[in-house]
Amino acid sequence: QAKQDAEAARVKAEQEAASAKQQAETRAREEMEKRVQEVEATARVKAEQQLAQARAEAKTIAAAVEQAKRDAEAARIKAEQEAEEAARMRAEQQAVQVKVEAGARIAEEEKAKLAVEVAELKAQAIAAEQAKRDADAARVKAESEARALAEAKVLADVEAEKTRTQQSGDAERRKIERASVRVREASERAKRVAEARAQEKAKAETKAKGQAEAKAKATSETELKAKSEVPQGGAVHVAPGEESAGRTNDYLLAAVVRLNAKHAAMEESVFAALDDLAQHQEAAEYFEAMQSGDGDVAGNFASDAAEAKTNAPVPERRTTIAAVAFFDVVNYSTESNSKQIELKHQLNELLANSLESLGAGERVILDTGDGAAIGFLQHPTDALEAVMHFRNRLMANKFYNYPDLRVRIGIHLGPVSLVKDINGQVNMLGDGINSAQRVMSFASKSQVYVSRTYFDFVFSLSDEYNELFRYRGSQQDKHGREFQVYELLDADEPVDEFEQMPDQPEAPVNLAPFKLDVFDAALLP
Which fold has domain 297-522? Predict the structure, then answer.
């Protein structure tokens, strides 16, 4: 039994030893496999990292190579373009030089051809100048007679009005007398302007005559020189085409001879416009003097606009030149209804204060909803003064009375049409308003822009106006129309002398003279 137990214990011990050995081998094998897998994973990750790094370096090298290729190609294209540009410029310079030389030769030939017919040109120029002087004299005489008739009619109307108002008291008679004095003063000023215009015309005619004589003398000397250069026994043959070209150039020379006379006519039209402006001013003052009591301009803006439309002394329809100031409240449409009412009330208050010194017949007011358009009918400088007064008052009270009011303004001098609607009120329309709105649209908040036309007008009155503006270049609206604009500076803002006047050709202002019936219409009850 002991042997059997020992044998069983031995067998059991062997089995346990074999099992332990097998478990140990299994654990060792698993540990070995795990370590092998870890080593393989580490090696694989390292290899992948090295591969990615190698790929990145390869991409960098390829990008550098591609960039170098592009740089080389760009340099080659640039060099080719520079070479082509240089060749083109040389060719153009050579072509221009050849053209200039050919033009010089042609000019010499034309000069020789024109010298042959100088005598005929002189006679034509003298005859044309004489005819123009006769026509101008007849026109001036007709204008003087028409003005005399208009003045006689005005005086007759004044006398008739004086007769009708004799029973209205001493105050009314004093008004009539003051109106008569103003009419006589206007007549005297018109006569003085006419005399000055006649003197300017005489000076221009004398100057034109002297230049024509100098030109004729020079051309005669050229003709004698050309005749002296013609070979003896030879004849000058002129082809039909050359003869027509010579006559065309003769007309050009005649136009040059008449240049001073045209300049005198332009000055005469300007004097006539200023004369009519003075007449219109006196008529408006007389009309206001005849009214019984003026409205209070310090009232609200809507009633003031209606009064200006109703009392303005204009016929049913008239087109004239006026300065238009266009006001626009910035960001008005984005505000609430109550805020819009507040901003509009502030704008009306400022405008009424700025227009307080102007009579009802001197301006036409249009309410645009988010702003206003004001036409100044008599003095274009009134627009600038009113705008400066408006801006100064706005800036002085912006932190107290008007903290949120921002207004941009545009001023233009152009044609407007004054028409009466079915209610008998005067409305204003035309390109002058549209252009003022375009000029205003180029300005930002709290800026004032004026057009080139308006700037030229005020600058022609005094050089001091140049210090108030700065040139802002050429602007283009949505319709492709270009405007040269100037900004009205603040009082404390310095002006760069190089920005005051643009380097561009002069653009004279064309003033359309008022018709004589304007003065008559102003006197109608």
Answer: Alpha-Beta Plaits (3.30.70)
